[in-house]
Design brief:
heterotrimer; A alpha/beta (about 170); B alpha/beta (about 300); C alpha/beta (about 425); B: Rossmann fold; Rossmann fold; 2 domains; four-stranded parallel beta sheet; C: alpha/beta; TIM Barrel; eight-stranded mixed beta sheet; 18 strands; about 30% helix
Amino acid sequence: MDAVAIERALSRVAHEIVERNPDEESLTLVGIRTRGVPLARRLAANIGSILGRAIATGELDITMHRDDLALRETLPRVGPSDISFDVNDRTLVLVDDVLFTGRTIRAALDELSDFGRPRRIQLAILVDRGHRELPIRPDFVGKNVPTALNERIRVRLVEVDGKDEVLLER
Amino acid sequence: MNTTWRHKDLLGIQELTAEEITFLLDTAAAFKQVGERSIKKVPSLRGKTLVNLFIEPSTRTRTSFELAAKRLSADVININTTASSLVKGETLKDTALNLQALNADIIVIRHSAAGAPHFLARFLKASIINAGDGAHEHPTQALLDAFTIREHKGRIDGLNVTILGDILYSRVARSNIWLLTKLGARVTLAGPSTLVPRVFEQFGCRVVHDIETAIGDADVINLLRIQHERQRKTMFPSIGEYTAMFGLNKDRFARTKPDALIMHPGPINRGVEIDSEIADCDRSVILEQVTNGLAVRMAVLFVCSGGQL
Amino acid sequence: MKSLLIKGGRVIDPANHVDEVRDVFIAESKIVASAQDAEVIDARGKIVTPGLIDMHVHLREPGRGDKETVETGTRCAARGGFTSIVCMPNTTPAADNTGTIAFIRQRVAEVGCVNVFPTGAISKELKGEELAPIGSLKKAGIVALTDDGHCVQSNDLMRRAVEYAKMFNLPVLDHCQDYSLVADGVVHEGYWSAALGLRGWPATGEDVIVARNVLLAELTDWWIHCQHISSARSVQLIREAKRRGVKISAEACPHHFTMTDGCVKAYETNFKMNPPLRTEHDRDGILEGLADGTIDCIASDHAPHCTYEKEVEFDLAPFGIIGLETELALSLELVRKKVLTLPALIERFTTKPATLLRLNKGTLSMGADADVTIIDPEIEWTYDVTQSASKSRNSPFHGWQMRGKAERTIVGGVTKFP
């Protein structure tokens, strides 16, 4: 995907989110660090202009909830999460760049429940590359890209990497 | 992004680089946020066993480590014993080997003998965390002190930090000296000449023996607890004389910089090293140090034993 | 007993001012001018000296045979090239009574493989309060008085002890330590004690007692020998006193002229000894003292301790290291570093201690006891403490590459090592 394709996908996803949640006052987007965060902000901006009001966002660092820490030789860097609103009884849309095994989302769900009890959680993904290891499915998908296990999806975003693109690497 | 932290133990600040120290402080910031959630627990150390081996008693530090471990979902065992019972009965080595036989993953040790954690690290597979070894080091205390300073001042580099009191017998002083000098602070040590000997100039510190010089341009003032027990009786005549010469009273406090932080590792001797009101004033960050201690210890436990080092 | 001919070695015999390649004959356990049917020992390329003397060894018997015995301790000595050793009185019970001396001498006769000269205590139970029965101890066979392990703090008692010892021609050896200055110090007081948070043992704690010994030696006009000198200031005090003709002497241990206090930085208890390792400046002071003769002898202060006793927190570990088997190699380094010539080094192990203690040893004169050490000065070897003859393993030199070793140790005409 190039920058234009990404923009179009995000625009479509924003509309789908609004369509699925017609009367949602409490709609909030939570980006999963790292690249889920700028994606969440862009979606919030899109949804905001559709609805004519500001949409709240938050950031989640799921490192502490990973299920593979004990298997690793060195640990990933931990950063703080920023959930400055009350999650209780809220509709949250988790946002991430790539959906693969589903374990990151599982960790995100666990971490969110440490903050309280949302009314419902939906999942918005830029690219779904398949190979789920857990029963996790996205509600909103930018693009389905079937991949082989030895391939990689590389997402670059302006806010993090200086440009927008999605590449499939073999 | 993976880290380059490759130590399974935290024995002291002396052996860490400035990058490693900064990394620990950054990680602590993430863990501080956990304490502000409604569920103050993360599963990172689930299934790991932490033993608090406190040969020298301490309720505060032990509780802090215990809570830190529990917030990381580890199982905690507390062993409190005095050195004398170890000497009469089991050696430290045997006690530690027994803990290893129970597959303890982390041993937090506080001991009155300097070098005790290094001794354990030589033959145990578990992560050894130094919670204070004699007069040598108390690394998590220095880390939480630095974390607190950084939160208020935004940096450590270039700050004037004064440590006041019994430096010679203080592990808190030593760990702070290593950390602050590595991160670029200008450290002043102050106290009676018997307790703050000139040899500390070789550690890159300024040594002074009058409180006015020490605190006049300080951005941070870290007060150490002063004790007049057996070992110190020949070092200074009385608590009264110490307080008169070095106590942080109202007059002296008035001559400090208006934004100078007041710190103390606790427990405070009100009216001795610090006037009661000053301990409670808004420039005193003593209670924040305790909160930050929890975050720092969570970070240390996570980083030393969360993986497979 | 077979006669021996030690052939073609470089014979260094300071007592007779000999340093040349020549043959040494041994018959009937004495040095002789020649002998028939002698077994030939090829000593070409080797150094042949009078049997070396170590005047500071802890044999631990009676009382702590778990650390070392007369048998194992003397075997260490033989392996190290020493034919005579002087053992210290801090046994259990202390050597403050004739019974202990008799016991030691009996054990030596039964199982000892080198000559052992016992010392007797200055004070009862080494407590520094009352004089031990010095006259009886002399009769029982001691060669010197010392409270080693401890130090008589009362200047008055020390003075009286030295005056009394004079009557018996006994030199007094002193472990120089002022208890109040040293308190519970475990490492040299300086940069490293400050960095490691360990209690310091200031050099002044040794200097103060050396100074008092100088003054008492002057007052009593008798011999006081300062053991294991570790401080540069002490060397200076002794040098100055010798210039004035005071009857003062001194010894130094290999660890004090080889290592410094930085060695303790990992809290390894095999670097914990009393007096402690000190700074480069102190080490240099010892080297100067050895070079100009201020320090008369080299001794090991061989101090065995069981492994379980040393494998504890640094503060709790006993002081001391074994040293008989590494002493010679470390001392030969002094020759390589041009601190001493080889003959001067040999003096430190032969004529000097023999003279101080009035021993009929340390020479290859005709009719002298056939105690001979044959040294291979160039052989390279690695010290493996696990193979030591000692019962104990507390050495900081394990794994060190060494150069020079005793090849053969002959005591009274009999080869005791290998």
